């Protein structure tokens, strides 16, 4: 049966596209999709549509791509036009997932039933831009999705419902992202069905205790500091897969490191020194313990197992990764 609830959707990356696809498949009307403007991407830096835009275009859904929704921001005319379009587009509720633009209170107030955010953490932990990365980096045992009634604060709105996911020992941001996108899609469809039936969704204010901020990932963070414990570096590597990719610098060459595991180490090798190099991996001394690198990539190359990498780019015992942070080429 076709649903009657009308949903304006705002989102940009794959995480959001999964939710939009589920909403569309469930039969809800989507009279407008908001997504960020096309951005340069790939080696040719050609303009590319976001995953959300691609889905919307493929399924005949109207799309708007304002650079801003703030009347007093950098693009006031675009913002005013987008807000006017929202006001003249009949809809009941707005759903937001990783949109990437600030939504002022004026925008949040347009939909009669409010705006629901699909957030990738168990709020109030990891409010902000990079909750999946930061949960992995911090060594959290679990994470999940929180559906939240949006307000003008940064992920501070009342919680509608949540779903939990155990973080597996070898999870990366990429693998966790896939499971969380699927969970978020399921949760929002359930919530919209309840909203259509009941006309409202119960929400609980977030507790003040336990709030943390998931700051946006910066490329410079991906430089591995070998003076840190191996267990922390292993988490950092998993958190930064697929972006921006953790790296070390060996004799002036940036080596991306995609997989690694902590190992016990005897002796007093200085941090960054390679103490073992064979088909099982490259073991690097750290501030505490050692780190066995099992998947590596040199500039312009592909991700390779340690065995494949060493066959073409020998790394030998006694060499040392630099300790100073050097940003890789963009």
Automatic annotation (TrEMBL):
<dbReference type="GO" id="GO:0004479">
    <property type="term" value="F:methionyl-tRNA formyltransferase activity"/>
</dbReference>
<dbReference type="InterPro" id="IPR037022">
    <property type="entry name" value="Formyl_trans_C_sf"/>
</dbReference>
<dbReference type="InterPro" id="IPR005793">
    <property type="entry name" value="Formyl_trans_C"/>
</dbReference>
<feature type="binding site">
    <location>
        <begin position="121"/>
        <end position="124"/>
    </location>
    <ligand>
        <name>(6S)-5,6,7,8-tetrahydrofolate</name>
    </ligand>
</feature>
<dbReference type="InterPro" id="IPR044135">
    <property type="entry name" value="Met-tRNA-FMT_C"/>
</dbReference>
<dbReference type="Pfam" id="PF00551">
    <property type="entry name" value="Formyl_trans_N"/>
</dbReference>
<dbReference type="InterPro" id="IPR036477">
    <property type="entry name" value="Formyl_transf_N_sf"/>
</dbReference>
<protein>
    <recommendedName>
        <fullName>Methionyl-tRNA formyltransferase</fullName>
        <ecNumber>2.1.2.9</ecNumber>
    </recommendedName>
</protein>
<dbReference type="InterPro" id="IPR011034">
    <property type="entry name" value="Formyl_transferase-like_C_sf"/>
</dbReference>
<feature type="domain" description="Formyl transferase N-terminal">
    <location>
        <begin position="6"/>
        <end position="192"/>
    </location>
</feature>
<dbReference type="GO" id="GO:0005829">
    <property type="term" value="C:cytosol"/>
</dbReference>
<keyword id="KW-0648">Protein biosynthesis</keyword>
<feature type="domain" description="Formyl transferase C-terminal">
    <location>
        <begin position="216"/>
        <end position="313"/>
    </location>
</feature>
<dbReference type="InterPro" id="IPR001555">
    <property type="entry name" value="GART_AS"/>
</dbReference>
<comment type="function">
    <text>Attaches a formyl group to the free amino group of methionyl-tRNA(fMet). The formyl group appears to play a dual role in the initiator identity of N-formylmethionyl-tRNA by promoting its recognition by IF2 and preventing the misappropriation of this tRNA by the elongation apparatus.</text>
</comment>
<dbReference type="InterPro" id="IPR041711">
    <property type="entry name" value="Met-tRNA-FMT_N"/>
</dbReference>
<comment type="similarity">
    <text>Belongs to the Fmt family.</text>
</comment>
<dbReference type="InterPro" id="IPR005794">
    <property type="entry name" value="Fmt"/>
</dbReference>
<dbReference type="Pfam" id="PF02911">
    <property type="entry name" value="Formyl_trans_C"/>
</dbReference>
<dbReference type="InterPro" id="IPR002376">
    <property type="entry name" value="Formyl_transf_N"/>
</dbReference>
<keyword id="KW-0808">Transferase</keyword>
């Amino acid at each position: 049966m076709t649903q009657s609830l009308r949903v304006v959707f705002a989102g940009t990356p794959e995480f959001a596209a999964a939710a939009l696809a589920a909403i569309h498949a469930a039969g809800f009307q989507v009279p407008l999709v908001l997504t960020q403007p096309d951005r340069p991407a790939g080696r040719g830096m050609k303009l590319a549509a976001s995953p959300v835009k691609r889905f919307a275009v493929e399924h005949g859904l109207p799309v708007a791509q304002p650079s801003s929704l703030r009347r007093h921001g950098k693009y006031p005319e675009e913002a005013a036009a987008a807000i006017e379009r929202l006001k003249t587009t009949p809809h009941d509720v707005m759903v937001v997932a990783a949109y990437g633009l600030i939504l002022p209170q004026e925008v949040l107030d347009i939909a009669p039933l409010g705006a629901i955010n699909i957030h990738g953490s168990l709020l109030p932990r990891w409010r902000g831009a990079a909750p999946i990365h930061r949960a992995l980096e911090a060594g959290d045992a679990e994470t999940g999705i929180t559906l939240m009634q949006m307000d003008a604060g940064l992920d501070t709105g009342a919680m509608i419902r949540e779903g939990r996911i155990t973080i597996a020992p070898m999870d990366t941001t990429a693998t966790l992202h896939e499971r969380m996108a699927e969970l978020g899609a399921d949760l929002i469809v359930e919530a919209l069905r309840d909203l259509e039936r009941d006309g409202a969704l119960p929400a609980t204010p977030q507790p003040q205790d336990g709030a943390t901020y998931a700051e946006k990932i910066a490329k410079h963070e991906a430089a591995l500091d070998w003076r840190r414990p191996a267990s922390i570096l292993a988490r950092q590597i998993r958190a930064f897969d697929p972006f921006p990719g953790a790296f070390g610098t060996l004799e002036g060459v940036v080596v991306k490191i995609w997989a690694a595991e902590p190992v016990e180490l005897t002796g007093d090798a200085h941090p960054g020194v390679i103490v073992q190099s064979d088909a099982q991996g490259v073991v690097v001394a750290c501030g505490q313990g050692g780190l066995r690198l099992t998947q590596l990539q040199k500039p312009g190359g592909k991700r390779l197992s340690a065995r494949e990498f060493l066959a073409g780019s020998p790394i030998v015992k006694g060499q040392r990764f630099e300790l100073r942070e050097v940003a890789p080429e963009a």
